[in-house]
């Protein structure tokens, strides 16, 4: 074989090695890129699923869409979170409400690339809790009370004076209690959804001696607007 033929053969062998090396290296880069592309959408999906479940109106800790019950939300656990949003299982997660971290799992680590960034989703929510309200009426001069807001239920206690009779209780014009012979004692009442709501007592007789009374006790929701932040790791 001539020197020129040997040189050409060596050159061809080197070219084959270079092509194989580039191909294998390119395949490795493509695999890494595909892994990042698959990982990030999965984390986004997990974060969105969790955020949606937290603000859903039918959640056990919610009072309506984007309205959270303060006590129930404060008692959320990681078991609750994993059950409501299975895609977050096994992932680092942190849930914050305003300045408070409700719960957290795992560490998010150092961020070296866009693919390593945790996914963060923020929602505006209203956080409500119930405040107890009570109004006591002197039935000689007072026959109604207005509830600016209420949770749907009330406890009504009627203590008529001798010679006095409370026959009917109306809420928003609707009869919620009635007894022709007279109401006396404590009653659980389901209230109409009207807000504000007038509760009126129909009374016969002015009473003798002491004053007759009627007491209405109810829970009025009070709340604040907060920022709910969900962070899920890749």
Give short descriptive properties of this protein:
Type IV pilin; eight-stranded mixed β-sheet; membrane; 3 helices; four-stranded antiparallel β-sheet; alpha+beta; 234 residues; rod-shaped; 28% helix; DUF7263; transmembrane helix; transmembrane
Description:
It contains 3 helices and 12 strands. The chain has 234 residues and is α+β, with helices and mostly antiparallel strands. Mean pLDDT is 85; it is low at 5-10 and 12-38. It comes from Halobellus rubicundus. Keywords: Membrane, Transmembrane, Transmembrane helix.
Task: Classify the beta-strand content into a percent band.
Answer: 35-45%
Task: Kindly report how far apart the N and C termini lie.
Answer: 60 Å
Q: Report the helical percentage.
A: 25-40%
Rg, alpha carbons: 34 Å
Give helix and strand order, one letter per element, not per position: HEEHHEEEEEEEEEE
Label the structural class: alpha+beta
**How would a textbook summarize the main sheet?**
8 strands, mixed
Envelope shape: rod-shaped
Mean of pLDDT: 85
Continuous helix count: 3
Care to count the β-strands? 12
Q: List low-pLDDT spans.
A: 5-10, 12-38
Keywords: Membrane, Transmembrane, Transmembrane helix
Protein name: Type IV pilin
Transmembrane segments: 7-30
Question: How would you summarize this macromolecular structure in one to three sentences?
Answer:
This protein has helices at residues 3-55, 70-74, 78-84, and strands spanning 62-64, 67-69, 93-97, 100-105, 119-138, 144-147, 153-159, 165-171, 174-178, 185-190, 197-204, 213-232.
């Amino acid at each position: 074989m001539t020197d020129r033929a040997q040189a050409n053969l060596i050159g061809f062998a080197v070219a084959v090695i270079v092509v194989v090396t580039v191909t294998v290296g390119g395949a490795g880069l493509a695999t890494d890129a595909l892994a990042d592309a698959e990982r990030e959408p999965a984390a986004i999906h997990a974060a969105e699923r969790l955020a949606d479940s937290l603000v859903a109106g039918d959640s056990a800790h919610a009072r309506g869409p984007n309205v959270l019950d303060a006590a129930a939300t404060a008692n959320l656990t990681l078991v609750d979170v994993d059950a409501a949003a299975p895609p977050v299982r096994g992932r680092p997660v942190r849930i914050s409400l305003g300045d408070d971290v409700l719960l957290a799992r795992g560490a998010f680590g150092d961020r070296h690339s866009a693919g390593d960034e945790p996914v963060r989703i923020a929602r505006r929510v209203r956080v409500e809790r119930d405040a107890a309200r009570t109004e006591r009426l002197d039935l000689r001069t007072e026959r109604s009370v207005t509830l600016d807001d209420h949770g749907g239920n009330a406890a009504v206690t009627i203590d008529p004076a001798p010679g006095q009779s409370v026959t009917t209780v109306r809420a928003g014009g609707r009869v919620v209690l009635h007894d022709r012979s007279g109401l006396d004692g404590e009653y659980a009442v389901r209230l109409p959804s009207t807000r504000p709501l007038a509760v009126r007592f129909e009374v016969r007789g002015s009473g003798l001696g002491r004053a007759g009374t009627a007491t209405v006790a109810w829970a009025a929701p009070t709340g604040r607007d907060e920022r709910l932040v969900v962070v899920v790791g890749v």
